[in-house]
């Protein structure tokens, strides 16, 4: 016969083994479910990534009409300038007057202003230029998305169509992502692009489609 102390030891050991087994199962289930992303999480993840990077200015960002820029020249405080880029793409700088910087990067615009000062005024100017406020860019997303309508784009970085759909809350359950239409004006003429967003999301198509300002994106309904 087993003593009461021996029985207690057996019961205790069985309980510990049961607890360990339960914890292992919970850990296995958590790992398994964590590795199974849903289609909606892909799009919301894209939107979250975009919001985290909203303040990061792309090195190749091209200055646009309406951007607010600040210009300073090292050891020349009287040459400090700032203002919005005009419709003709220029800003006004002391001594050298209008300088067209639209379409240039921040570094490119600074080098251009240095060259202008170097012509007649300064021997070795060091110009710093940065965009302090971006002009508003908008696109329109229609059809089978969670939040259809007009959406503001972060002007300082380019977004793919996947990220833009994320901004609109992602597609609805009945969206046909294989035949998304993008209407765009190119050289004064309207063009329509048919984009297979489904292939991009799955990774089978590596070439990404980037959206432009004033694009009109339509996500059609899927007919079963």
Quick structural overview:
The chain is 33% helix and 25% strand.
How confident is the prediction overall: mean pLDDT? 79
Strand tally: 10
How much β-strand is present in the residues? 15-25%
**CATH architecture grouping of one domain:** Roll
End-to-end separation: 71 Å
How many whole angstroms does the radius of gyration measure?
A: 29 Å
Short key terms for the protein model shown above:
Outer membrane lipoprotein wza fold like, alpha+beta, 224 residues, five-stranded mixed beta sheet, 25% strand, disordered N terminus, wza like fold, three-stranded antiparallel beta sheet
Could you explain how this protein is built, in words?
Helix content is 33%, strand content 25%. With 224 residues, the protein is an alpha+beta fold. The strands form 3 sheets. The protein has a 5-stranded mixed β-sheet with strand order 7-6-10-8-9, with helices on one face. A hairpin with a 5-residue loop joins β6 (137-143) and β7 (149-153). The radius of gyration is 29 Å and the shape is elongated. Residues 1-16, 18-42 and 44-55 have low confidence and may be disordered.
List the helices and strands and how they pair.
Layout (H helix, E strand, L loop, with lengths): L3 H31 L4 H14 L15 E6 L7 E4 L5 E4 L3 E4 L5 H15 L6 E7 L3 E7 L5 E5 L7 H7 L12 E7 L2 E7 L1 H6 L13 E4 L5
Parallel strand pairs: 6-10
Antiparallel strand pairs: 1-2, 1-5, 3-4, 6-7, 8-9, 8-10
């Amino acid at each position: 016969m087993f003593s009461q102390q021996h029985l207690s030891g057996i019961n205790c050991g069985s309980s510990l083994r049961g607890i360990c087994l339960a914890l292992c199962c919970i850990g296995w289930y958590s790992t398994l479910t964590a590795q199974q992303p849903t289609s909606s999480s892909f799009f919301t993840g894209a939107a979250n990534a975009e919001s985290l990077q909203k303040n990061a200015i792309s090195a190749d960002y091209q200055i646009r009409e309406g951007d607010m820029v600040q210009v300073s020249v090292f050891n020349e405080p009287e040459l400090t300038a700032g203002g919005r880029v005009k419709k003709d793409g220029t800003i006004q700088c002391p001594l050298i007057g209008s300088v067209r910087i639209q379409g240039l990067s921040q570094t490119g615009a600074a080098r251009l202003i240095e060259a202008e000062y170097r012509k007649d005024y300064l021997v070795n100017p060091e110009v710093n230029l940065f965009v302090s406020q971006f002009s508003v860019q908008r696109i329109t997303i229609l059809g089978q998305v969670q939040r259809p309508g007009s959406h503001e784009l972060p002007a300082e970085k380019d977004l793919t169509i996947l990220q833009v759909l994320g901004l609109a809350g992602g597609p609805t359950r009945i969206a046909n992502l294989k035949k998304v239409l993008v209407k765009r004006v190119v050289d004064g003429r309207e063009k329509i692009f048919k984009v297979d967003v489904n292939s991009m999301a799955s990774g089978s198509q590596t070439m990404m489609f980037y959206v432009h300002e004033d694009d009109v994106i339509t996500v059609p309904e899927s007919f079963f």
